[in-house]
């Protein structure tokens, strides 16, 4: 399992109003079903959508497969035909897929109509796809951003952030200098990227307009983790050559530390509430995982939990995997609201949207009551996106769009 999938599976892993046609440019207003603009929905990595949707607990079991697309051979031994999670903006579905041309595995960025599946455009982004792993696809206005990480020695930690046009896929810029970049979140004009090397963790903020570097920070002796962004700040593991490590909040505009928690709390940011109220940190060295909920404004501890993974952070509730069950907790207190046992346990990735909790194996659960509603598909999804009254499931080399 590659590094991106490992972090996501352990849990240490602009919204539109007008409905537009598939051939039209991406809009920036909100719409029924909302968008899914980043790998984990938003810069907070909440995996939770609050937009109104036709897919509710009473209707979701009526969805059926509407389109199916296939990718090519594996790139970087990821065992997938698609690179990372697809994203949805407006009526467009964007994805990175592999193709084999003259024996060479290449990576292509594609734009399709979410409603009809018609191909709008495709652009080859990597001529040597067998040497680069792509992922973290993100929509920001008229730009698509992604990370391309070299996955072959001797420069397996060298990656760049790339920006492409949503209108035709042409490359607009790439980050000036390579670095160990693996992860990406976008908040406003700030592109936040993180990664790790044998020396420690790196975090950087770029300008979405031209890729220029605003600031770079290095934490010796510890990995950077996922870029969890709330309240215009990056929540990160802060390590020093001497002195205690901490969870820290750095202002996106200039990198200044806003707060640090050096208490006995897990140091790795996992997810946060999209409204900026709670940050969840964890420690996956042992099972069950210890997670802590911190006040995102001050860093103060709210509560601790023992669990196996944090699935999603909803508007009021925190969803976790607890043994062979899904557990639901009050987001601000940690108090358990319900627990639903499942024969195969809770599979990841998961999404909560419009009162429905979707699990990777196709199980759907009423997010308020914990009642199992049914099964939508067979097999286990590698990636899961819920947007615009559609559910996009990526399994191996196949991407399927479900709708009513």
Widest sheet: strand ordering:
1-27-28-29-30
Q: What is the approximate shape?
A: globular
Radius of gyration: 20 Å
Alpha-carbon distance between the termini? 33 Å
List the helices and strands and how they pair.
Elements: H1 3-10, E1 48-49, E2 64-70, E3 87-89, E4 92-101, E5 104-113, E6 119-126, E7 132-140, E8 143-150, E9 159-165, E10 171-174, E11 183-187, E12 190-196, E13 200-207, E14 213-220, E15 228-230, E16 233-238, E17 246-251, E18 257-261, E19 268-272, E20 278-283, E21 289-295, E22 301-307, E23 309-313, E24 317-322, E25 325-330, E26 336-341, E27 351-353, E28 356-358, E29 363-366, E30 372-375, E31 383-387, E32 390-395, E33 398-403
Please tag this protein with its features:
about 400 residues; mainly beta; 5-stranded mixed beta sheet; 4-stranded antiparallel beta sheet; 1 helix; 33 strands; globular
What is the gist of this entry?
This protein is an all-beta fold. It is 2% helix and 48% strand.
